[in-house]
Every structure is written in C-alpha cells, then in structure tokens.
Design a protein that fits this description.
Number of strands: 20
Protein name: FAD binding domain-containing protein
Organism: Massilia orientalis
Strand content: 25-35%
Length: 410
Amino acid sequence: MTKGTVAVIGGSLGGLFAANLLLRAGWEVNVYERVSEELAERGAGVVTHPELFDVLAALGIDDADIGVEVASRLTLDRDGGVVGEHAHPQVLTAWGRLYALLRAALPDACYHSGRHVVGVDQDEHGVTASFADGTRATADLLVAADGIRSSVRQLLAPDVQPRYAGYVAWRGLVDESALSAETHARLFGHFGFCLPPREQMLGYPVAGAGNAMEPGRRRYNFVWYRPADEAEVLRLSTDDAGRVYEKGIPPPLIAGSVLREIRAVAGQSLAPQFAEVVARTAQPFFQPIYDLESPRLVFGRVALLGDAAFVARPHCGMGVTKAAGDAQALAGWLARLPVGPALEAYSRERVAYGMRIVAHARHLGAYMQAQLATEHEMRMAERYRTPDAVMRETAVPPRFDEAGAHAAAG
C-alpha cells in the first residue's frame, strides 16, 4: 500500500528531487513537465554544498559521480595577475549532470512530458490539475516545482511576483580543450573571480558534454554580472529581426550585434583569461536577476517548492541546494505528521529559510545594483566590494544565528 498519491508539476531539478524522495518514502508519484521533449541540457554550472550531498545520498547517488573538485579560489586583476587567493575545497557540477542522475533514478512511467498546467481545483478529498491538452490528473497532494514563472503559483498566489534586481548575469560554457594552455593553467583548477567596478565575473570547471568527467573533455562555466536597467534588458532581448522577448530571449536568438558587443566589453574590462573564456564560448546567454519571496508555501493540498517558492540571486549558489532541501523537508514532515499539519510545518520551516537566503543573496549582490535604495544596501555594497569578502562568502552556505539573523561566513 502507498501512503497516497502526489502530482509533481515541473520536471526539472526541484521536481525530480521531490519525486524521487517521495517515491522512496512510499508515495505514488507522477511528474508533469510542460516541455514536450526531454529537457535539454542547460548551459549552467551548479555549486554544491553539504546539504545537497545529503539529499543525493538519500537517493543512493554517490557524490563521486557529481562533478569537478577545486581546492581554492583566486581573484585576478585587470592584467590577469592574482590579487587574492583563498583555500576553499568545493565540488562544482553542471545542471545537465545533476539532471541526468536524478532523471535516471526515477522510473520512466512516472514522468509525463508535454503537460502544461492551466488549472488547479481541490476539495477535502484531493486536488486536480488540468492541462492545456485537455487531460487531468487527480492526487492527494500537488507539489508545484515549476520554476520562477510557476503556473501553479500564478493561479493560487498571483500577487507573488519576481522583482528585478537591476542587473543581469551573462553565462556560458566553453570546452576545456578550447582554452589556451596559459588560461587553462591559471583558471581551470580554481574557482576564479574578477571584479571590475560594479561588476563581478566568476568561473569554475564542470563536467563536459555528455557529462564527461575526464581531463580534456570537461568545460569551464562562467557567470558575469553586469548592471542593466529595464530598457537595457529589452535591448538585449531583441533579436536580429527586431522582435522583443520580454520574458527571456532563447540563447540562439540573441542578436549577433549583442554578442559582438559583449565579447568586446569583456576584452576591455576583464582579466585576459576571462576575456578569452567569453570569446571562445560558442553561445553566451544572459539572465536578468530577480528576487522572489513567497509569504506562504501551502494552499490547501498544494505545496510550492524550489524556484516556484523562493528565488535567491545566484551569488550564494544555493538555488539547487535549496530545492533539494525543500524536497527533503517536505518528505520529512509528511513522514512524521498527518498531511495537513505536515504541510503547514513545511511551509513555516521553508518560508523562514527562504527569506534568509534571499536576504543574504541580496547583500552579496548589492554593489552591482544601479540604484542602492537604503543605507543598509550601501553598507553591504562596500562590504562585498573587496576580493577577500567576495572569495569568502560567494557560493558559500550562509550561517544564521539562533534568532535567524545573518552571521558572516568564513
């Protein structure tokens, strides 16, 4: 006998964490993903943390399979010299690597593609999701793990919207073999940084195409934060034909003039090693940076999870780990309490955690914002301007005191 049925909306990492954990806890699980085909590999790196490894271990996934380990962090100046180094062993991976491992752990019969949710109805007996293709799915619980633009959240909490932070992150992956010997020697064994005025470039090695881990077949992932007001985001989101993609331009459609411009700017403002990384990346892309905070995560029999619930700026590198932690917390409370009290306990725990993570990430990114609205934000901007502070606190799990206040890491 199962403990009940769960419909998971969203088949990316957050949904797969929830589905795998709940399946192993005795629930009957079905995942409904909007995209019709298997999700494509995304050009994004992922920073790992101990909590993430705990969840992967609970699923029987060996951490030796995850990614590339580096021993230290370094910051380069405009001329490519090292201006700071900080010992910090860490494992870096890629979205595609984690997706492949989590997807392989879930039986194919549990995963349904091409299901875009357009309605959610519930009563005391269950919850029903209606999809654009006319099909429906009824379950005891519904987990909304459908990302920052969550359709489920839009239906149940339309006032909760992402807030633009005033800057974008240019991202990309370049093959290890495409880098010059000099750049490879300087960057590849480290988590690297470069700090132009009001900008931040960082990069690290990850698994290669097809999840290859062998030296020579890996890739280097970069994230380059640059201020951009909303008009600039629209300019960057306009393709060669003049069409504007207000909710995000697909990477292959980014205008050639924009790509030439960003590579030229990289050559002018970044350390030459990082400029080479940008120049040799076949398809750079960008993402506007948002904050998203949900004051509650449970609506009857529906629970928000991962980026559908909270989105913290990428500086703390906690997005995937937070989604895994959400899934673990949900499964844990459902194992200890009846459904109603379990969902409420989950909401209380993860709202408090999500609020703290978003605040911490906002502090880390303060000096890149075009307008610093408060004295506190200006203090944070000064604090995180130095190489030492950036290396010690970027992509490091924040520590909080017993009252929930932020305590500096490192």
